[in-house]
Design goal:
This protein is about 30% helix and about 20% strand. By secondary structure, the chain is α/β, with parallel strands linked by helices. It holds the Pfam family Mur_ligase_C.
Protein backbone atom coordinates (compact mmCIF):
# COMPACT_ATOMS: atom_id res chain seq x y z
CA UNK A 1 0.00 0.00 0.00
CA UNK A 2 0.98 3.65 -0.14
CA UNK A 3 2.68 4.46 3.19
CA UNK A 4 0.39 6.32 5.60
CA UNK A 5 1.02 7.64 9.12
CA UNK A 6 -1.48 6.61 11.77
CA UNK A 7 -2.67 10.20 12.09
CA UNK A 8 -3.75 10.17 8.44
CA UNK A 9 -5.43 6.78 8.83
CA UNK A 10 -7.38 8.11 11.79
CA UNK A 11 -8.41 11.15 9.73
CA UNK A 12 -9.62 9.04 6.78
CA UNK A 13 -11.57 6.63 8.96
CA UNK A 14 -12.88 9.22 11.47
CA UNK A 15 -11.11 7.22 14.15
CA UNK A 16 -9.34 8.02 17.40
CA UNK A 17 -5.84 6.91 18.37
CA UNK A 18 -5.56 4.85 21.54
CA UNK A 19 -3.28 2.46 23.36
CA UNK A 20 -0.24 4.75 23.12
CA UNK A 21 -0.45 4.78 19.31
CA UNK A 22 2.15 7.12 17.82
CA UNK A 23 0.43 9.39 15.26
CA UNK A 24 3.74 9.60 13.33
CA UNK A 25 4.13 5.80 13.04
CA UNK A 26 3.84 4.81 9.38
CA UNK A 27 1.99 1.79 8.01
CA UNK A 28 4.06 0.52 5.09
CA UNK A 29 3.13 -3.15 4.94
CA UNK A 30 -0.06 -4.91 3.89
CA UNK A 31 -3.47 -4.32 5.47
CA UNK A 32 -4.71 -7.69 6.77
CA UNK A 33 -7.66 -9.17 8.66
CA UNK A 34 -5.87 -12.41 9.61
CA UNK A 35 -3.26 -11.99 12.34
CA UNK A 36 -1.31 -14.89 10.82
CA UNK A 37 -0.74 -12.77 7.70
CA UNK A 38 0.81 -9.85 9.58
CA UNK A 39 4.17 -8.63 8.32
CA UNK A 40 6.41 -5.90 9.74
CA UNK A 41 4.75 -2.57 9.00
CA UNK A 42 1.23 -4.01 8.64
CA UNK A 43 -2.11 -2.61 9.74
CA UNK A 44 -4.24 -5.32 11.34
CA UNK A 45 -7.99 -4.82 10.98
CA UNK A 46 -9.91 -6.50 13.80
CA UNK A 47 -13.15 -7.94 12.40
CA UNK A 48 -15.70 -9.59 14.68
CA UNK A 49 -17.04 -12.65 12.89
CA UNK A 50 -19.58 -15.28 13.78
CA UNK A 51 -16.97 -17.57 15.35
CA UNK A 52 -13.78 -15.52 15.72
CA UNK A 53 -13.26 -11.98 17.00
CA UNK A 54 -10.18 -10.32 15.55
CA UNK A 55 -9.93 -8.06 18.60
CA UNK A 56 -8.77 -11.09 20.58
CA UNK A 57 -5.68 -11.28 18.36
CA UNK A 58 -4.65 -7.61 18.57
CA UNK A 59 -1.68 -8.16 20.85
CA UNK A 60 -0.50 -11.09 18.74
CA UNK A 61 -0.64 -8.89 15.62
CA UNK A 62 1.51 -6.23 17.26
CA UNK A 63 4.06 -8.81 18.38
CA UNK A 64 4.20 -10.07 14.78
CA UNK A 65 5.13 -6.60 13.54
CA UNK A 66 1.89 -4.71 12.96
CA UNK A 67 2.17 -0.96 13.48
CA UNK A 68 -1.35 -0.70 14.87
CA UNK A 69 -4.80 -2.25 14.94
CA UNK A 70 -7.89 -0.80 13.26
CA UNK A 71 -10.52 -1.77 15.82
CA UNK A 72 -14.11 -1.06 16.79
CA UNK A 73 -13.39 -1.24 20.54
CA UNK A 74 -10.34 -0.61 22.74
CA UNK A 75 -7.66 -3.30 22.68
CA UNK A 76 -4.42 -3.83 24.53
CA UNK A 77 -2.35 -2.49 21.63
CA UNK A 78 -1.73 0.70 19.66
CA UNK A 79 -4.95 1.21 17.76
CA UNK A 80 -7.19 3.41 15.68
CA UNK A 81 -10.67 3.06 17.20
CA UNK A 82 -13.59 3.42 14.78
CA UNK A 83 -17.34 2.73 15.05
CA UNK A 84 -17.24 -0.01 12.38
CA UNK A 85 -13.96 -1.64 11.35
CA UNK A 86 -15.33 -3.02 8.06
CA UNK A 87 -16.73 0.38 7.05
CA UNK A 88 -13.43 2.04 8.01
CA UNK A 89 -11.56 -0.46 5.87
CA UNK A 90 -13.74 0.53 2.90
CA UNK A 91 -13.08 4.24 3.49
CA UNK A 92 -9.36 3.62 3.71
CA UNK A 93 -9.42 1.77 0.39
CA UNK A 94 -11.50 4.47 -1.30
CA UNK A 95 -9.03 7.12 -0.17
CA UNK A 96 -6.17 5.02 -1.55
CA UNK A 97 -7.79 4.86 -5.01
CA UNK A 98 -8.18 8.64 -5.08
CA UNK A 99 -4.40 9.01 -4.76
CA UNK A 100 -3.82 6.87 -7.87
CA UNK A 101 -4.88 9.04 -10.82
CA UNK A 102 -3.09 6.87 -13.38
CA UNK A 103 -4.73 3.58 -12.42
CA UNK A 104 -7.38 1.92 -14.59
CA UNK A 105 -9.95 -0.04 -12.59
CA UNK A 106 -11.64 -2.99 -14.32
CA UNK A 107 -14.58 -4.67 -12.60
CA UNK A 108 -15.77 -8.21 -13.38
CA UNK A 109 -19.10 -9.63 -12.24
CA UNK A 110 -21.48 -12.45 -13.14
CA UNK A 111 -23.13 -15.49 -11.64
CA UNK A 112 -20.33 -17.83 -12.73
CA UNK A 113 -16.80 -17.49 -14.09
CA UNK A 114 -15.76 -14.31 -12.26
CA UNK A 115 -12.56 -15.65 -10.78
CA UNK A 116 -11.37 -17.42 -13.94
CA UNK A 117 -12.09 -14.33 -16.06
CA UNK A 118 -10.39 -12.07 -13.53
CA UNK A 119 -7.29 -14.29 -13.62
CA UNK A 120 -7.17 -14.23 -17.44
CA UNK A 121 -7.68 -10.49 -17.62
CA UNK A 122 -5.02 -9.81 -14.99
CA UNK A 123 -2.62 -11.78 -17.13
CA UNK A 124 -3.46 -9.58 -20.12
CA UNK A 125 -3.14 -6.28 -18.26
CA UNK A 126 0.21 -7.37 -16.83
CA UNK A 127 1.54 -7.17 -20.40
CA UNK A 128 0.89 -3.42 -20.25
CA UNK A 129 1.71 -2.46 -16.68
CA UNK A 130 1.80 -3.34 -13.00
CA UNK A 131 -1.47 -5.07 -12.07
CA UNK A 132 -3.29 -5.74 -8.81
CA UNK A 133 -5.94 -8.50 -8.74
CA UNK A 134 -7.66 -10.43 -5.95
CA UNK A 135 -6.07 -13.55 -4.57
CA UNK A 136 -8.62 -16.27 -5.23
CA UNK A 137 -12.13 -14.87 -4.78
CA UNK A 138 -11.59 -11.77 -2.65
CA UNK A 139 -14.75 -10.15 -3.98
CA UNK A 140 -16.91 -8.99 -1.07
CA UNK A 141 -17.06 -6.09 1.39
CA UNK A 142 -13.81 -7.27 3.03
CA UNK A 143 -11.84 -8.87 0.22
CA UNK A 144 -12.51 -6.00 -2.20
CA UNK A 145 -10.94 -3.21 -0.11
CA UNK A 146 -8.11 -5.49 1.01
CA UNK A 147 -7.24 -6.03 -2.66
CA UNK A 148 -7.42 -2.30 -3.43
CA UNK A 149 -5.09 -1.54 -0.54
CA UNK A 150 -2.37 -3.69 -2.12
CA UNK A 151 -1.89 -1.04 -4.81
CA UNK A 152 0.96 1.46 -4.80
CA UNK A 153 2.11 4.37 -6.93
CA UNK A 154 3.41 1.99 -9.61
CA UNK A 155 0.06 0.25 -10.08
CA UNK A 156 -1.41 0.74 -13.54
CA UNK A 157 -4.36 -1.66 -13.40
CA UNK A 158 -6.72 -3.05 -10.80
CA UNK A 159 -8.68 -6.07 -12.03
CA UNK A 160 -11.37 -6.50 -9.39
CA UNK A 161 -13.96 -9.23 -8.92
CA UNK A 162 -17.33 -7.96 -7.68
CA UNK A 163 -19.79 -10.27 -5.95
CA UNK A 164 -23.34 -9.50 -4.86
CA UNK A 165 -25.31 -11.08 -2.06
CA UNK A 166 -28.09 -8.57 -2.45
CA UNK A 167 -29.17 -5.43 -4.28
CA UNK A 168 -26.78 -2.56 -3.59
CA UNK A 169 -23.68 -4.62 -2.82
CA UNK A 170 -21.97 -4.08 -6.18
CA UNK A 171 -22.89 -0.40 -6.10
CA UNK A 172 -21.03 -0.08 -2.81
CA UNK A 173 -17.98 -1.92 -4.16
CA UNK A 174 -17.85 0.39 -7.18
CA UNK A 175 -17.94 3.37 -4.82
CA UNK A 176 -14.74 2.12 -3.21
CA UNK A 177 -12.94 1.71 -6.56
CA UNK A 178 -14.86 3.37 -9.43
CA UNK A 179 -14.30 1.25 -12.58
CA UNK A 180 -13.52 2.54 -16.05
CA UNK A 181 -14.28 -0.85 -17.63
CA UNK A 182 -17.06 -3.15 -16.45
CA UNK A 183 -17.31 -6.79 -17.59
CA UNK A 184 -20.59 -8.68 -17.05
CA UNK A 185 -20.40 -12.41 -17.75
CA UNK A 186 -23.82 -13.93 -17.19
CA UNK A 187 -26.96 -13.99 -15.09
CA UNK A 188 -27.49 -17.47 -13.70
CA UNK A 189 -28.95 -19.24 -10.70
CA UNK A 190 -26.23 -18.68 -8.07
CA UNK A 191 -27.81 -17.26 -4.88
CA UNK A 192 -31.25 -17.56 -6.46
CA UNK A 193 -32.87 -17.95 -3.06
CA UNK A 194 -31.24 -14.77 -1.76
CA UNK A 195 -32.39 -12.62 -4.69
CA UNK A 196 -35.71 -14.28 -5.43
CA UNK A 197 -35.34 -14.53 -9.21
CA UNK A 198 -33.01 -14.04 -12.17
CA UNK A 199 -34.42 -10.59 -12.89
CA UNK A 200 -33.35 -9.45 -9.43
CA UNK A 201 -29.91 -11.00 -10.00
CA UNK A 202 -29.66 -9.05 -13.26
CA UNK A 203 -30.61 -5.87 -11.43
CA UNK A 204 -27.80 -6.44 -8.93
CA UNK A 205 -25.17 -7.36 -11.52
CA UNK A 206 -26.13 -4.36 -13.64
CA UNK A 207 -25.04 -2.00 -10.90
CA UNK A 208 -21.55 -2.44 -12.33
CA UNK A 209 -22.41 -0.90 -15.71
CA UNK A 210 -24.49 1.80 -14.03
CA UNK A 211 -21.36 2.95 -12.20
CA UNK A 212 -19.31 3.45 -15.37
CA UNK A 213 -18.51 6.99 -16.53
CA UNK A 214 -19.50 8.21 -19.98
CA UNK A 215 -15.84 7.73 -21.01
CA UNK A 216 -15.88 4.10 -19.83
CA UNK A 217 -16.65 0.80 -21.54
CA UNK A 218 -19.24 -1.86 -20.68
CA UNK A 219 -18.15 -5.31 -21.88
CA UNK A 220 -21.30 -7.43 -22.18
CA UNK A 221 -22.07 -11.03 -23.08
CA UNK A 222 -24.12 -10.86 -26.28
CA UNK A 223 -25.30 -14.46 -25.82
CA UNK A 224 -27.06 -13.79 -22.49
CA UNK A 225 -30.27 -11.77 -23.01
CA UNK A 226 -30.30 -10.45 -19.46
CA UNK A 227 -26.70 -9.23 -19.80
CA UNK A 228 -27.25 -7.80 -23.27
CA UNK A 229 -30.20 -5.84 -21.89
CA UNK A 230 -27.87 -4.00 -19.50
CA UNK A 231 -26.72 -1.82 -22.41
CA UNK A 232 -29.64 0.51 -21.66
CA UNK A 233 -28.46 1.01 -18.08
CA UNK A 234 -25.15 2.72 -18.79
CA UNK A 235 -23.85 5.92 -20.35
CA UNK A 236 -20.60 4.16 -21.22
CA UNK A 237 -19.77 2.77 -24.63
CA UNK A 238 -20.82 -0.86 -25.03
CA UNK A 239 -18.85 -3.66 -26.65
CA UNK A 240 -20.19 -7.20 -27.00
CA UNK A 241 -18.46 -10.57 -26.87
CA UNK A 242 -19.88 -14.00 -27.57
CA UNK A 243 -20.20 -16.71 -30.19
CA UNK A 244 -22.73 -15.07 -32.51
CA UNK A 245 -21.86 -12.76 -35.39
CA UNK A 246 -23.39 -9.78 -33.60
CA UNK A 247 -20.50 -9.84 -31.11
CA UNK A 248 -17.51 -7.65 -31.91
CA UNK A 249 -15.21 -10.06 -30.05
CA UNK A 250 -16.23 -13.63 -30.81
CA UNK A 251 -15.12 -17.24 -31.01
CA UNK A 252 -15.36 -19.07 -34.31
CA UNK A 253 -14.80 -22.75 -35.02
CA UNK A 254 -14.69 -23.95 -31.42
CA UNK A 255 -13.16 -27.44 -31.10
CA UNK A 256 -12.70 -29.38 -27.85
CA UNK A 257 -9.88 -31.91 -27.48
CA UNK A 258 -9.96 -35.23 -25.64
CA UNK A 259 -8.96 -33.53 -22.38
CA UNK A 260 -11.83 -31.05 -22.60
CA UNK A 261 -9.72 -28.05 -23.66
CA UNK A 262 -11.13 -25.72 -26.28
CA UNK A 263 -9.46 -24.16 -29.32
CA UNK A 264 -11.00 -21.47 -31.49
CA UNK A 265 -10.37 -18.52 -33.74
CA UNK A 266 -10.56 -15.23 -31.85
CA UNK A 267 -12.21 -12.73 -34.18
CA UNK A 268 -11.93 -8.98 -33.49
CA UNK A 269 -12.66 -5.84 -35.56
CA UNK A 270 -8.95 -5.55 -36.35
CA UNK A 271 -8.09 -9.16 -37.13
CA UNK A 272 -8.09 -12.72 -35.89
CA UNK A 273 -5.78 -15.17 -34.15
CA UNK A 274 -5.87 -18.79 -33.01
CA UNK A 275 -6.37 -19.60 -29.33
CA UNK A 276 -5.70 -22.99 -27.74
CA UNK A 277 -6.79 -22.89 -24.12
CA UNK A 278 -5.09 -24.91 -21.42
CA UNK A 279 -8.13 -24.40 -19.20
CA UNK A 280 -10.58 -27.30 -18.96
CA UNK A 281 -14.18 -27.20 -20.10
CA UNK A 282 -15.82 -25.57 -23.10
CA UNK A 283 -17.35 -22.99 -20.76
CA UNK A 284 -13.85 -21.49 -20.48
CA UNK A 285 -14.37 -20.07 -23.97
CA UNK A 286 -16.83 -17.48 -22.65
CA UNK A 287 -14.44 -16.45 -19.87
CA UNK A 288 -11.61 -16.12 -22.38
CA UNK A 289 -13.76 -14.02 -24.70
CA UNK A 290 -14.72 -11.66 -21.87
CA UNK A 291 -11.07 -11.17 -20.94
CA UNK A 292 -10.15 -10.75 -24.61
CA UNK A 293 -12.81 -8.07 -25.10
CA UNK A 294 -11.57 -6.04 -22.15
CA UNK A 295 -7.97 -6.50 -23.27
CA UNK A 296 -8.88 -5.36 -26.77
CA UNK A 297 -10.47 -2.21 -25.35
CA UNK A 298 -7.17 -1.50 -23.60
CA UNK A 299 -5.41 -1.58 -26.97
CA UNK A 300 -3.73 -4.97 -26.80
CA UNK A 301 -3.08 -6.51 -30.25
CA UNK A 302 -5.16 -9.58 -31.03
CA UNK A 303 -2.00 -11.69 -31.44
CA UNK A 304 -0.86 -10.75 -27.94
CA UNK A 305 -4.28 -11.52 -26.49
CA UNK A 306 -4.34 -14.92 -28.19
CA UNK A 307 -0.83 -15.73 -27.00
CA UNK A 308 -1.62 -14.92 -23.38
CA UNK A 309 -4.91 -16.79 -23.40
CA UNK A 310 -3.21 -19.84 -24.89
CA UNK A 311 -0.50 -19.85 -22.24
CA UNK A 312 -2.78 -19.28 -19.27
CA UNK A 313 -3.17 -22.00 -16.65
CA UNK A 314 -5.48 -21.90 -13.62
CA UNK A 315 -4.30 -19.39 -11.00
CA UNK A 316 -7.00 -19.90 -8.38
CA UNK A 317 -7.39 -23.17 -6.52
CA UNK A 318 -10.11 -25.79 -6.86
CA UNK A 319 -11.53 -24.60 -10.17
CA UNK A 320 -11.39 -27.37 -12.79
CA UNK A 321 -8.02 -28.53 -11.50
CA UNK A 322 -7.18 -31.69 -13.42
CA UNK A 323 -4.56 -33.97 -11.87
CA UNK A 324 -3.43 -37.42 -13.01
CA UNK A 325 -2.32 -39.82 -10.29
CA UNK A 326 0.58 -42.16 -10.89
CA UNK A 327 -1.87 -45.02 -11.45
CA UNK A 328 -3.67 -43.11 -14.21
CA UNK A 329 -6.68 -42.02 -12.14
CA UNK A 330 -7.70 -38.51 -13.22
CA UNK A 331 -9.11 -36.24 -10.52
CA UNK A 332 -11.09 -33.16 -11.52
CA UNK A 333 -11.21 -30.87 -8.50
CA UNK A 334 -13.87 -28.22 -9.13
CA UNK A 335 -14.82 -27.99 -5.49
CA UNK A 336 -14.49 -24.25 -4.82
CA UNK A 337 -18.21 -23.64 -5.23
CA UNK A 338 -21.24 -24.76 -7.20
CA UNK A 339 -24.60 -23.65 -8.57
CA UNK A 340 -26.94 -25.27 -11.10
CA UNK A 341 -25.22 -23.62 -14.08
CA UNK A 342 -21.67 -24.47 -13.04
CA UNK A 343 -22.74 -28.05 -12.26
CA UNK A 344 -24.01 -28.48 -15.81
CA UNK A 345 -20.79 -27.02 -17.20
CA UNK A 346 -18.65 -29.30 -15.04
CA UNK A 347 -20.52 -32.47 -16.01
CA UNK A 348 -20.33 -31.47 -19.68
CA UNK A 349 -16.55 -31.06 -19.44
CA UNK A 350 -16.20 -34.29 -17.44
CA UNK A 351 -18.11 -36.25 -20.08
CA UNK A 352 -15.46 -35.27 -22.63
CA UNK A 353 -12.46 -35.67 -20.35
CA UNK A 354 -13.57 -39.08 -19.05
CA UNK A 355 -14.74 -40.54 -22.34
CA UNK A 356 -14.06 -44.28 -22.60
CA UNK A 357 -13.25 -44.60 -18.90
CA UNK A 358 -15.10 -45.53 -15.73
CA UNK A 359 -16.31 -42.22 -14.32
CA UNK A 360 -17.31 -41.32 -10.78
CA UNK A 361 -18.55 -38.09 -9.22
CA UNK A 362 -18.76 -36.61 -5.74
CA UNK A 363 -21.36 -33.85 -5.37
CA UNK A 364 -23.44 -32.21 -2.64
CA UNK A 365 -26.78 -30.49 -2.40
CA UNK A 366 -26.72 -26.91 -3.69
CA UNK A 367 -27.56 -24.10 -1.31
CA UNK A 368 -29.10 -20.60 -1.34
CA UNK A 369 -31.70 -21.56 -3.93
CA UNK A 370 -34.74 -20.51 -1.91
CA UNK A 371 -38.10 -22.09 -2.67
CA UNK A 372 -36.69 -23.60 -5.85
CA UNK A 373 -34.01 -25.47 -3.93
CA UNK A 374 -35.69 -28.90 -3.80
CA UNK A 375 -36.61 -28.82 -7.50
CA UNK A 376 -33.18 -27.61 -8.62
CA UNK A 377 -31.43 -30.18 -6.43
CA UNK A 378 -33.63 -32.92 -7.86
CA UNK A 379 -32.61 -31.67 -11.30
CA UNK A 380 -28.97 -31.89 -10.23
CA UNK A 381 -29.58 -35.47 -9.19
CA UNK A 382 -31.13 -36.28 -12.55
CA UNK A 383 -28.16 -34.69 -14.29
CA UNK A 384 -25.70 -36.82 -12.32
CA UNK A 385 -27.79 -39.98 -12.39
CA UNK A 386 -28.10 -39.82 -16.16
CA UNK A 387 -24.47 -38.91 -16.84
CA UNK A 388 -23.28 -42.46 -17.51
CA UNK A 389 -21.31 -42.66 -14.26
CA UNK A 390 -20.10 -45.89 -12.73
CA UNK A 391 -20.72 -44.41 -9.30
CA UNK A 392 -22.13 -41.30 -7.64
CA UNK A 393 -21.45 -40.10 -4.10
CA UNK A 394 -23.70 -37.42 -2.62
CA UNK A 395 -22.09 -35.86 0.45
CA UNK A 396 -23.53 -33.87 3.31
CA UNK A 397 -26.94 -32.70 4.49
CA UNK A 398 -30.18 -32.01 2.60
CA UNK A 399 -29.28 -34.67 0.05
CA UNK A 400 -32.73 -36.24 -0.32
CA UNK A 401 -33.80 -34.37 -3.50
CA UNK A 402 -30.43 -35.05 -5.14
CA UNK A 403 -30.58 -38.73 -4.31
CA UNK A 404 -34.18 -39.02 -5.48
CA UNK A 405 -33.37 -37.36 -8.79
CA UNK A 406 -30.27 -39.51 -9.28
CA UNK A 407 -32.14 -42.76 -8.60
CA UNK A 408 -34.96 -41.75 -10.94
CA UNK A 409 -32.58 -40.92 -13.78
CA UNK A 410 -30.50 -44.05 -13.31
CA UNK A 411 -33.56 -46.29 -13.21
CA UNK A 412 -35.02 -44.62 -16.30
CA UNK A 413 -31.81 -45.09 -18.26
CA UNK A 414 -31.67 -48.73 -17.19
CA UNK A 415 -34.95 -49.53 -18.96
CA UNK A 416 -34.40 -51.54 -22.13
CA UNK A 417 -34.75 -49.54 -25.33
CA UNK A 418 -38.24 -49.92 -26.80
CA UNK A 419 -36.77 -50.20 -30.26
CA UNK A 420 -33.95 -52.64 -29.72
CA UNK A 421 -34.52 -54.23 -26.33
CA UNK A 422 -30.85 -53.53 -25.54
CA UNK A 423 -29.30 -51.11 -23.13
CA UNK A 424 -27.52 -47.97 -24.30
CA UNK A 425 -24.07 -46.97 -23.03
CA UNK A 426 -25.60 -44.86 -20.25
CA UNK A 427 -28.08 -47.49 -19.12
CA UNK A 428 -27.20 -49.08 -15.83
CA UNK A 429 -28.45 -50.66 -12.69
CA UNK A 430 -28.63 -48.77 -9.45
CA UNK A 431 -27.13 -49.77 -6.15
CA UNK A 432 -28.59 -48.18 -3.05
CA UNK A 433 -29.13 -49.72 0.33
CA UNK A 434 -27.64 -52.98 -0.93
CA UNK A 435 -29.68 -53.19 -4.15
CA UNK A 436 -27.80 -53.25 -7.41
CA UNK A 437 -28.30 -53.84 -11.09
CA UNK A 438 -25.62 -54.74 -13.57
CA UNK A 439 -25.20 -52.67 -16.71
CA UNK A 440 -24.60 -54.65 -19.87
CA UNK A 441 -22.03 -53.60 -22.44
CA UNK A 442 -23.58 -52.48 -25.73
CA UNK A 443 -23.00 -54.41 -28.92
CA UNK A 444 -19.44 -53.94 -30.14
CA UNK A 445 -18.04 -52.90 -26.77
CA UNK A 446 -14.81 -54.71 -25.83
CA UNK A 447 -14.85 -57.16 -22.93
CA UNK A 448 -14.46 -55.37 -19.62
CA UNK A 449 -15.36 -51.99 -21.13
CA UNK A 450 -15.28 -49.27 -18.44
CA UNK A 451 -18.60 -48.82 -16.68
CA UNK A 452 -20.20 -52.02 -17.97
CA UNK A 453 -20.85 -55.29 -16.25
CA UNK A 454 -20.75 -53.48 -12.91
CA UNK A 455 -23.53 -51.94 -10.78
CA UNK A 456 -23.92 -48.20 -10.84
CA UNK A 457 -23.52 -47.13 -7.24
CA UNK A 458 -25.42 -44.19 -5.74
CA UNK A 459 -24.59 -43.60 -2.10
CA UNK A 460 -24.92 -40.90 0.52
CA UNK A 461 -22.10 -40.07 2.92
CA UNK A 462 -21.94 -37.50 5.73
CA UNK A 463 -18.86 -35.48 4.79
CA UNK A 464 -15.83 -34.92 2.57
CA UNK A 465 -13.65 -37.43 4.43
CA UNK A 466 -16.26 -40.18 4.10
CA UNK A 467 -16.53 -39.43 0.38
CA UNK A 468 -12.78 -39.93 0.00
CA UNK A 469 -12.94 -43.19 1.92
CA UNK A 470 -15.70 -44.47 -0.35
CA UNK A 471 -13.74 -43.49 -3.47
CA UNK A 472 -10.68 -45.30 -2.17
CA UNK A 473 -12.67 -48.55 -2.37
CA UNK A 474 -14.16 -47.81 -5.78
CA UNK A 475 -11.32 -46.36 -7.86
CA UNK A 476 -9.14 -48.47 -10.11
CA UNK A 477 -6.22 -47.42 -12.33
CA UNK A 478 -7.40 -45.38 -15.31
CA UNK A 479 -10.66 -44.18 -13.74
CA UNK A 480 -11.77 -40.53 -13.65
CA UNK A 481 -13.56 -38.68 -10.84
CA UNK A 482 -15.26 -35.28 -10.69
CA UNK A 483 -15.49 -33.54 -7.31
CA UNK A 484 -17.81 -30.53 -7.12
CA UNK A 485 -20.08 -28.98 -4.52
CA UNK A 486 -20.94 -25.81 -2.63
CA UNK A 487 -18.08 -24.14 -0.78
CA UNK A 488 -19.52 -24.92 2.64
CA UNK A 489 -19.12 -28.68 2.06
CA UNK A 490 -15.34 -28.43 1.74
CA UNK A 491 -15.10 -31.10 -0.94
CA UNK A 492 -11.62 -29.91 -1.82
CA UNK A 493 -10.64 -32.08 1.13
CA UNK A 494 -12.00 -35.09 -0.74
CA UNK A 495 -9.74 -34.26 -3.68
CA UNK A 496 -6.74 -33.77 -1.41
CA UNK A 497 -7.25 -37.18 0.20
CA UNK A 498 -7.82 -38.93 -3.12
CA UNK A 499 -4.60 -37.37 -4.40
CA UNK A 500 -2.61 -38.56 -1.43
CA UNK A 501 -3.54 -36.20 1.37
CA UNK A 502 -1.81 -33.03 0.14
CA UNK A 503 -3.11 -30.11 -1.89
CA UNK A 504 -2.02 -30.49 -5.48
Amino acid sequence: MIPLPLARIAEITSGALSGMADPRAVVRGPVVIDSRAVEPGSLFVAIKGARVDGHDYAAHAIRAGAVAVLASRPVEAPAVIVPDAAAALAELAAAQVRTLPNVTVIGVTGSAGKTSTKDLLARLTARVGSTIAPQGSFNNELGHPLTVLRADLDTRFMVLELAARNIGHIKELTRIAPPQIGVVLNVGTAHLGVFGGKEAIAKAKGELVESLPRSGVAVLNADDPLVRGMATRTEARVTYYGRGESAAIRAEGVVVDARGRASFTLRTPSGAAHVSLQLYGEHAVENALAAAAAGYELGLPVATIAEELSEATPRSRWRMEVTDRADGVTVVNDAYNANPDSMRAAFSAFEVLGKGRRRFAVIAALRELGDEGPALNAELGRLAGGAGLAGLIVAGPDAEPVLAGAHAAAQASAQPSAQTGAQTPTQAGVQAGGQAGAAQAPDGAPPGAPGYGEPVRIVHVPDAEAAAAELAVWLRPGDAVLIKGPRAMGLERTAELVLGGATQ
